[in-house]
Amino acid sequence: MKALLVIDVQNGIVKYGDFKQELSLMECVIKDFKESSNPVIFIRHFDDSKESPLCRDSIGSELHSSLKDYADYVIEKQTPSSFFNTELSNTLEKLGVNHLYIIGFETEFCCMFTAISAFDRGYKVTFIKDATGTTNTDKLYEMQGLDIRNFVGKVLKWSSVIEVLDYEEYVGKYKAENTI
């Protein structure tokens, strides 16, 4: 069975950029999973620091209103990996999931760490790179011209163990499969 992980689509992240395109693509993928009755699992990150935009019980930590109603399950985490000290593994095992699709925010941290952790646990992993986004920039990394999403996509694809697609490739490969 397939499941979709929607990582860190929270107010405290979405407010830091213009993510209309990413949110739109995320919603398209989510709707595809809902139509085919495959589970949609939202991952919600929390920080202990009161100064963090993702501080527990803050408005920033809440799932973004544009997508939150699609969640079949919500798993809480406090590290970049959605698996570390969470209920994700147990939930996926109960559901009989063997193939994870990953979309969401903080491409180079939470999405990438989760993809690698999923592979390490034996899941087939599909990373839909243009349905991810990040609040970080090339200036933060002191790497002028760095396209974080494409860089992460290339690294994961070069691993030859994680499937990396853009949305159009996903539609071509899996949309027809989901409607059968």
Briefly summarize what is shown.
This protein has 180 residues and is of the alpha/beta class. It has helices spanning 11-14, 20-35, 88-95, 107-120, 148-158, 167-178; strands at residues 2-7, 40-45, 73-77, 99-105, 124-133, 163-165. The mean pLDDT is 90.
Give a description of the structure.
The chain is an alpha/beta fold and 180 residues long. It has a single domain, classed as Isochorismatase-like (Rossmann fold). Helix content is 36%, strand content 21%. It has 6 helices and 6 strands; from the N terminus they run E-H-H-E-E-H-E-H-E-H-E-H. The protein has helices spanning 11-14, 20-35, 88-95, 107-120, 148-158, 167-178, and strands at residues 2-7, 40-45, 73-77, 99-105, 124-133, 163-165. It has a 6-stranded parallel beta sheet with strand order 3-2-1-4-5-6, with helices on both faces. Helix 4 (107-120) links the parallel strand 4 and strand 5 (124-133). Helix 4 (107-120) packs parallel to helix 5 (148-158). The longest helix has 16 residues, at 20-35. The protein is globular. The two termini are 14 Å apart. The mean pLDDT is 90. Keywords: Hydrolase. It holds the Pfam family Isochorismatase. Belongs to the isochorismatase family. This is Isochorismatase family protein. InterPro entries: Isochorismatase-like_dom (IPR000868), Isochorismatase-like_hydrls (IPR050272), Isochorismatase-like_sf (IPR036380).
What are the salient characteristics of this protein?
single chain; 180 residues; alpha/beta; Rossmann fold; 6-stranded parallel beta sheet; 6 helices; 21% strand
